[in-house]
Design a protein that fits this description.
alpha/beta, 8-stranded parallel beta barrel, TIM Barrel, single chain
Length: 207
């Protein structure tokens, strides 16, 4: 069964307030903190205002792509529980976890089956391993069957072009789900009706 969900790419207070106060809120909310190519990117000054809220029992996740030391120092002062790290090698991941005291989601981009094996390098460092499609902001999917041999004791999350209308196909997978693009409208903004539909229906597939 699905372990829980993360809604990623939140960039405005209306959407965040709706999610936090939903009767069935997600376990995680993610914010794009340094990847300026993403339409979901939030500047540091806006981020300070956006996440300065009572998040209740939700974990706030800072999504970081190969962050430099300056970015890490700035982000460390904000209200985050997890750092979701792309393009960060195991040694740097250890350094970040030790120096900033945050839980770590190590994000691995998957295109072919062999890419999955990289999880071994992070399994003793990270709190969660995220298996994402190539493309970052483009939400490219991948074959989830590639993940079938990962040990059950590894906490796992799936992202990459997940469709809220195909949840039944995922009900027997022991993963957290990470959605972004499928919860948006044609203008690329988060759609509250889609978020409501998703949060109300995911309960049927959660452990």
């Amino acid at each position: 069964m699905i372990k829980g969900v993360k809604i990623c790419g939140v960039s405005d207070i209306k959407t965040l307030d709706y999610i936090i106060n939903h009767p069935r809120p997600p376990k995680f909310v993610g914010f794009i903190c340094n990847f300026k190519k993403s339409k979901r990117y939030v500047s540091y000054e806006d981020l300070k205002k956006l996440i300065n809220v009572d998040k209740k029992n939700i974990n706030f996740v800072s999504v970081l792509v190969n962050p430099d030391n300056q970015t890490l120092e700035k982000i460390s002062k904000l209200n985050f529980d997890y750092y979701q790290l792309y393009d960060v090698d195991p040694n740097q991941t250890k350094f970040i976890k030790k120096n900033y005291g945050k839980k770590i989601i190590s994000a691995l981009t998957i295109e072919k089956k062999e890419d999955v094996n990289k999880y071994v390098l992070y399994k003793d460092i990270s709190d969660i391993i995220l298996f994402d499609g190539k493309g970052y902001e483009k939400s490219i999917g991948f074959d989830h069957k590639f993940l079938s041999n990962i040990p059950k004791n590894i906490k796992k999350m799936i992202a990459g072009n997940l469709d809220i209308n195909n949840l039944p196909k995922l009900e027997n997978i022991d993963f957290f789900l990470d959605l972004s693009g499928s919860l948006e409208n044609e203008q690329g903004k988060k759609d509250l009706q889609k978020i409501d539909y998703f949060l109300n229906n995911i309960i049927h597939y959660e452990a």
